[in-house]
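G.,

No rush on this.
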Amino acid sequence: MTEPIVVVGAALLSGGRLLAARRSAPPELAGRWELPGGKVEPGETPEQALVRELREELGVEAEPAERVPGEWPVRSDLVLQVWTAHLVSGEPGPLEDHDELRWLTPDEVWDVDWLDQDVQAVMETVRLAWGREGTEAR
């Protein structure tokens, strides 16, 4: 059995808020929200992939900080790993595969319809970043 491909997600934090990105593609995911990121390419570390993906998808420079505990299946050949990250420069914009971005406070984090595979990752991120149970306000 081959190892699954790692998809990195960024729990991009700024000013006590978490960035959520609404998918515009593919059609079966359009309209749902995710932590931005993408597949780790051959020869890249997950942290390098995170930096590259945020540059491509959002037009920002970011610095990975801490791995969020756990990993979550996206499908049989993909697994999601999440890192907290901080903006270094730029203002995020939906450049690729997204049509809207929202900065969410801890009280707003469940106001969006997260992709199924991102729900557990967001719960862990909320616990790690804000010291709150991720199921609050759900």
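When you get to it, here's the other one too:
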Amino acid sequence: MELTKEDKMLLANAEDKYDQCSSQYRITYTNFLDLRQRSLIEKHWREMNRGGSDVHLEFYGGYDDAERTVAVFLPDYAEVSDCPLCVIRIKTPAGGRKLTHRDYLGSLTGLGLKREMTGDILTVENGADIIVLEEVKDFILLNYSKAGRTTLTPEAVPLAELCIPESKTVMARDTVASLRLDNVISSAFQLSRAKAADAIRAGIVFVNSMQCEKPDMQVEEGAKLVLRGKGKAYLREVGGRTRKDRITIVIERFV
């Protein structure tokens, strides 16, 4: 994986956060990361052999399975939940158009707020819960009143009150020639194997939040699979072989 200038700046910032935590014995954290950025920092952490350090690295987005997370550097006395995230709950007028993730994100960036200051945006019928860094909470509360023509009413609520929409999934049984990543991605997202391999090489496939660029990587039962732009799935079950010597699998795909 060739590092861009932005990648190198990201890793340098993470190193600074690590050094601050180690020398000052306090919790430190980055801005919100997408899956690729998280993967870069996690790989860098392993290559630097930080596992034996007194400082621990965890990724935290406010709830289990959050897509956007901050990298949190923890001294031994601290918990990841000490990281100062909060929830901005947005309410929209009853009976109005349901706003999409794109509506909320566009209106936030329209305020001049950088994407790395906000985490996941969880939409519901008449609003959304937006996870943000504590330091931008007051700015959003004071300035976030419109998304297009829709009036917004923001309020801060504790992270413990985060409203996580119920996920809709479908289960699908299939067979694959092997548990190579390109085979499993092809099955999970209904692509040809060639297109699945192209997506993997393009760096837009993630397994258990780690960017994977090798189509022949073996996938294990329980793996979380993300194809950027297509969604998320889990390899829930790996069964036996068919008469044609193919492996039966069960995929849970989010819709």
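The chain has three domains: 5-79, 85-161, 169-254. The CA atoms of residues 212 and 245 lie 27 Å apart.

Enjoy the weekend,
O.
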